[in-house]
Amino acid sequence: MPEEWSTPLEIRTLRYFLAVAREENMTRAAEQLHVTQPTLSKQMKSLERELGSTLFTRRSFSIALTEEGRLLRRRAEDLVAMADRITDEFLELDDVLGGDLYLGLAESHQVRFLAREIKRLKEDCPGMRYHITSGDTEQVTEKLDKGLLDFAALVEEPDTARYEALNLPEADRWGIVTRADGELARKARVSVDDLEGLPLFCSEQSWAADLPRWAGARMAELRLEGTFRLAYNGSVFAREGLGHLLTFARLVDTGEDSGLVFRPLWPVLESPMYLIWHRQQVLSPIARRFLTQVSAALEEETTNAGRH
Q1: CA nearest 269: which of 224, 213, 216, 229?
Q2: For the chain, does the N or the C end have fewer beta carbons within 10 angstroms?
Q3: Are 215 and 250 members of one domain?
Q4: pLDDT, greater one: 173 or 49
Q5: Does residue 196 sit in the same domain as residue 227?
Q6: Where are the transmembrane segments (predicted)?
Q7: Containing H/E element for 58?
Q8: What is the structure's pLDDT at 101?
């Protein structure tokens, strides 16, 4: 066997595998990779032998991933992304005006604070490139734990034994998004009494961690109709009258022409936002610069608030 086939799990092999998985066609993948189709086919068969699994279901004009192939695809995407990060970070060690910054962001109006600081950093470091991943706590911390992100912004208390954290300046206020022509729209604020037995939409994470802080012993009186990770999708269902969306203020359009309104919860329920990073993580130069800038901006806001 030639030496190039002796280590099938090298990064190049995983790149080849991902190209085949993406194109679902060996010939097109080979053209994209600038290798011959027999060479690529031989590489994939060697990979299957090494792993002891069938990765593809081969058809006349296309291929599809098996369950084992889908598992490898998820793992390969992370490994290739990490390899690219390592290469980029070493190339950027002496680049004081550029580099790649990776952030995972939960849905929150406070993201505007981070966007403002990224804009300021971009003005000072024109060669900087930033990469944003959006998702809930589980999604972004998984990528942070794998080293695929520099920072994550969460709307729940972080594990301080594991992460360093900065508390962002505001807290998100909870409420419901409901149809503008509905009964709840006529209220200035809504309580557990108002929501008892009604169909409600919320993220699984918030239903388990945030809403019990508000409803307390009456949580069992609230009815979860469906779960959404993205507030926008939940607002579409609320607009159709299928239920009422529990979410933060200012996440979805509740303007005059939207057909929706936002009504805050009573008693008030708020969720602070934190910027976190691993305690043991070695930050790239551009990530350290971003952290220094955010820390200074937060200190300035605290000082200004104290003056008022």
Answers
A1: 213
A2: C
A3: yes
A4: 173
A5: yes
A6: none
A7: strand 56-58
A8: 94
What pLDDT sits at residue 130?
95
In angstroms, how far is the first alpha carbon of the chain from the final one?
Answer: 75
Strands 223-227 and 199-202: parallel
Least confident of 27-31, 93-97, 192-196: 93-97
Cα separation, 179 vs 254, whole angstroms: 9
192 to 54, 210, 239, 245: CA distances (angstroms): 53, 14, 21, 14
Q: Look up the CATH number of the domain holding residue 57.
A: 1.10.10.10
Decide the pairing of beta strands 270-278 and 151-154. antiparallel
This prediction has a pTM of 0.70
Together in a domain, 214 and 290 = no
In a domain, 160, yes or no: yes
Helix, coil or strand: residue 67: helix
Residues 6+ apart with CB under 8 A from 62: 24, 25
Same domain for 221 and 74: no
Tally of domains within the chain: 3
- For 107, the domain range is 96-169+272-306
Q: What is the length of the chain?
A: 308
Say if residue 163 is in the same domain as residue 127: yes
Residues 198 and 163 both lie in one domain: no
Is there a contact between 74 and 263 (Cβ–Cβ < 8 Å)?
no
Identify the weakest region by mean pLDDT among 9-23, 189-203, 207-221: 9-23
In angstroms, rounded to a whole number, what is the distance separating the alpha carbons of residues 136 and 227?
12
160 φ, ψ to 5°? Answer: -70, -15
